């Protein structure tokens, strides 16, 4: 091996080749090193050219969808409050000071009642005008554990009704805005902030226990109809105590605000839609709500319509941040959400502490619905007999709850013909075709009647309708004027739309 190396190095050609290789390696290394150094200098220059982002720079106000958890740098006061709250939650806060702060509640509710309140856990879902006032009152009254759920952030337009937000909070999540302010008032309160949208899919997690403590009460302050219905249905089916705030928008009369069962709530579009959707899910009563009976009238605020140019651009539903979320400006007098929120909290405090209170009586009409169902059954039997069917044992696919839903939610307890509210009954609107009885199952006969085929009339109107339309040769258009026919069509179209929620 050594002799081969000696011969090779002694060769002039080999020396030239070795020199060329070494030179190439050195030059290549030098070029690569220069390129790397140039890149490093360029990156350093680029970084140096980017100005520092101060607290007032606009990018600090840009948030993700639903806002970020810490958009603004805490002030010195916020930092002191957060530090005090952290110590207080660990028990480093004199209990005598807490009792002195809660002294007025203490003498009102007694020591036993206040202790129940102080050891309670309440969830507030929706932290806008209603929810913020509710949360503030709960914390000031002594509730020790609060979970706040809201996906939204504070806007300038929030400030006319939000209990705690300031200009410096604009762009921050509502849940953290509330926590930050209330830590300065009741530092011992344990806050669990969920900057997220409530959904039925996440209900088990969002309404779960806190430190092993199941929620004593849930406050619904949501203004999105889908989330609201999902929450109330979930609470009802899982036997969780809940109270719901209906619509405060377009309301101005505080003397018309009531707390009662959802079956008794009237004169409120949000209440109507919520009640109707819940009834379609089998929930017709048993949920306390705060609602206003104030009726709209000349000169009063109304939901502002979208400009025509927005409709011209295409589907207006695309303007909303969520499906079925409101996309029009809802006029709100700043005082009304506060009254709704305080009324909700007042009820929660009385319920948790066991303080005596009474509800508005709900409308119990089960006997009336049972009578209407029997009358409808008889009408179907007579109709079947008139066309040659054996009506003995005929069943109809309509329940007492269905009757109550149609009478209350679709026809509002009035005849579609005359508007009268006494001696009501349900009857088919159109004459059925000859094959309206299902006899496919041996020993069973049932009518193929559907809810959307029924209308509400007085008994006298129904007798005439049955004779001349259902058993006679006339059509509804021959018997009633165009206004009545159009009203029925609209009701049937409306019921068909709501049928998807059943």
TrEMBL record:
Membrane-crossing segments per the record: 12-34
Family annotation (InterPro entries): ThiF/MoeB/HesA (IPR045886), ThiF_NAD_FAD-bd (IPR000594), Ubiquitin-activating_enz (IPR035985)
Cellular localisation: Mitochondrion outer membrane
GO cellular component annotations of the record: mitochondrial outer membrane
Gene Ontology MF term list: ATP binding; tRNA threonylcarbamoyladenosine dehydratase; ubiquitin-like modifier activating enzyme activity
Taxonomy, superkingdom: Eukaryota
Classification via Pfam families: ThiF
Any one GO biological process: cyclic threonylcarbamoyladenosine biosynthetic process
Primary subcellular site in the record, as a coarse category: mitochondrion
Gene3D superfamilies reported in the protein's UniProt record: NAD(P)-binding Rossmann-like Domain
UniProt keyword list: ATP-binding, Ligase, Membrane, Mitochondrion, Mitochondrion outer membrane, Nucleotide-binding, Transmembrane, Transmembrane helix
Residues in THIF-type NAD/FAD binding fold domain copies: 104-360
Family named by the database record: Belongs to the HesA/MoeB/ThiF family.
Function: Catalyzes the ATP-dependent dehydration of threonylcarbamoyladenosine at position 37 (t(6)A37) to form cyclic t(6)A37 (ct(6)A37) in tRNAs that read codons beginning with adenine.
Descriptive protein name: THIF-type NAD/FAD binding fold domain-containing protein
Protein source organism: Zopfia rhizophila CBS 207.26
């Amino acid at each position: 091996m050594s002799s081969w190396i000696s011969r090779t190095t002694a060769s002039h050609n080999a020396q030239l080749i070795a020199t060329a290789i070494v030179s190439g390696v050195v030059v290549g290394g030098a070029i690569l090193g220069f390129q790397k150094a140039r890149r490093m200098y360029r990156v350093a220059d680029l970084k140096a050219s980017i100005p520092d982002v101060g607290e007032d720079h606009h990018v600090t106000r840009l948030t993700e969808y639903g806002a970020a958890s810490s958009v603004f740098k805490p002030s010195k006061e916020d930092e002191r409050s957060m530090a005090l709250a952290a110590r207080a939650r660990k028990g480093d806060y004199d209990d005598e000071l807490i009792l002195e702060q809660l002294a007025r509640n203490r003498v009102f509710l007694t020591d036993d009642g206040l202790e129940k309140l102080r050891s309670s856990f309440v969830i507030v879902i929706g932290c806008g005008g209603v929810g913020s006032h509710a949360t503030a009152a709960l914390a000031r009254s002594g509730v020790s554990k609060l979970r706040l759920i809201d996906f939204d952030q504070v806007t300038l337009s929030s400030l006319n009704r939000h209990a705690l937000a300031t200009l410096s909070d604009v762009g921050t999540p509502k849940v953290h805005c509330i926590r930050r302010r209330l830590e300065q008032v009741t530092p011992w309160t344990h806050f669990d902030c969920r900057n997220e949208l409530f959904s039925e899919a996440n209900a088990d997690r969002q309404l779960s226990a806190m430190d092993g403590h199941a929620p004593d009460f849930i406050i619904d302050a949501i203004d999105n109809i889908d989330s609201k219905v999902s929450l109330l249905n979930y609470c009802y089916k899982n036997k969780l105590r809940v109270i719901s705030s209906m619509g405060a928008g377009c309301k101005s009369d505080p003397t018309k605000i009531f707390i009662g069962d959802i079956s008794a709530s009237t004169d409120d579009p949000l209440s109507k839609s919520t009640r109707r959707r819940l009834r379609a899910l089998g929930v017709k009563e048993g949920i306390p709500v705060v609602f206003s009976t104030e009726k709209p009238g000349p000169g009063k605020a109304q939901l502002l319509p979208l400009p025509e140019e927005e409709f011209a651009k295409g589907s207006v539903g695309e303007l909303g941040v969520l499906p079925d979320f409101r996309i029009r400006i809802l006029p709100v007098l700043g005082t009304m959400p506060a009254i709704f929120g305080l009324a909700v909290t007042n009820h929660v405090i009385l319920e948790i502490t066991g303080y005596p209170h009474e509800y508005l009586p709900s409308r119990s009409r089960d006997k009336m619905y049972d009578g209407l169902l029997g009358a409808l059954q008889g009408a179907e039997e007579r109709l079947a007999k008139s066309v040659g069917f054996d009506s003995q044992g005929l069943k109809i696919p309509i329940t007492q709850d269905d009757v109550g839903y149609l009478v209350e939610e679709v026809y509002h307890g009035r005849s579609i013909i005359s508007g009268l509210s006494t001696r009501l009954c349900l009857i088919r609107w159109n004459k059925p075709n000859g094959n309206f009885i299902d006899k496919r199952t041996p020993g069973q006969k049932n009518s193929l009647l559907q809810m959307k085929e029924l209308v509400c009339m007085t008994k006298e109107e129904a007798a005439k309708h049955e004779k001349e339309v259902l058993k006679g040769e006339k059509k509804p258009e021959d018997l009633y004027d165009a206004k009545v026919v159009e009203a029925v069509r609209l009701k049937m179209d409306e019921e068909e739309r709501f049928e998807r929620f059943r």
